[in-house]
Amino acid sequence: MARKQPAESKCESCLNSLTRCFDRSVKYLEPFLVAFAVILILLDVYTFFMHVVTEIVQQSGLAMAGIHVVWSLWLLFNVFWNQMHCTFTSPGTTLEVREEALQSAMTFDWRWCRKCNRGKPPLAHHCSVCNRCVFKMDHHCVWMANCVGFNNYRFFVLFLFYMWVGSLYSAVVFWLHVPGLSRLDDIGKDPRGFLPFFMFVASCSIWMAMCVLFGWHVWLVLTGQGTIEYLDNSSRAADARAAGRRWVNPYHLGAVANWRETFDVWGRWWWLTWMLPSRRRKLGNGYDIKKVNPDDLPPGQVMVFQGI
Question: Which residue ranges traverse the bilayer (predicted)?
């Protein structure tokens, strides 16, 4: 007589099936979300050239219109450049590294991934959507149809930066150079005014969303954390406070050093070159991450080298 499956096992099996279905649906949905984002950006560009540039020519002349065109094309190029590289650049996974290299680099703070059947270094996490362990994984982004990790995180942050600047610029020029944009009755009388009004509202909404999202990732970069690590670090800091100690993030090298390390920028002009387009490969291998030297810590501070 067959044993009855425990209720807890049935619930766990059902939950796992739902999770797998959700992950598969995300993979099918991602291309449509990426296409929607591209179409929305291109619609904004179309509205700008059809409705704004002509008004700038009439109000300020060809020279000023030329400046606006060059600036808008620079923003557009950087948005698509960083989106493309974030989407098509592998974030860096354990499956891309020879197993012998991973085994030789393993230390006490590594874990073992039963799904990939390989060692998993600190800051690496298994993505259920991509079904692989990603080095220094931040999150899986459906708008990029890719995981954001060690190799492509800088492209993601730069995409957010140029979307933040571009959406603000778009909203401002629509407001200043589209006649009657602030009067809804004029928009109702002239159907041509609806598209600039719609893109103005969309630009304002996107800019507010970018303020939150870009600001969040700027703070994460400056503090040497990722989105996933922040959750673990918060609980570890609370445990350390309860024990009368101060917990220190072992990967926080300092705000400036964290920024340079993320964007691979050096020299005296690093504070400008970080925002320039680049296709160079990220320095490092993704599993040997720089850490703070424990000997440099003052008394009373504790550093936990656990697998994060």
Answer: 28-49, 61-81, 155-177, 197-222
Residue-wise pLDDT tens digits, 99-130: 899 989 998 889 999 999 999 999 999 998 99
Residue with tokens 């893109």: 199
Note the Cα 101 to chain centre separation in Å: 28
Contact 161, 262 (CB under 8 A): no
Helix or strand run (H / E) with residue 27: helix 7-47
Place of tokens 């101060």: 246
CA distance 85 to 156: 9
CB-hemisphere CA count at 13 Å for 77?
Answer: 10
- DSSP secondary structure code for residue 231 in this structure: H
Q: Is the pLDDT of residue 145 over 50?
A: yes
Between 32 and 191, where is the model more confident?
Answer: 32
The pairing of beta strand 301-303 with beta strand 246-248: parallel
8 contacts: CB under 8 Å, gap ≥ 6: none
Could you give the CA distance from residue 23 to residue 16 in angstroms, rounded to a whole number?
Answer: 11
- Report the 10 Å Cβ neighbour count for 190: 10
Say if CB 72 and CB 48 are below 8 A apart: yes
Residue (of 158, 154, 7, 15) closest to 80 by Cα position:
158
Token pair 């550093």 is found at 303
Interval 172-186: pLDDT, tens: 999 998 877 766 555
Residue pLDDT, tens place only, 27-76? 889 999 999 999 999 999 999 999 899 989 998 899 999 999 999 999 99
Catalytic residues: 141
CA dihedral (24, 26, 30, 32) positive or negative: positive
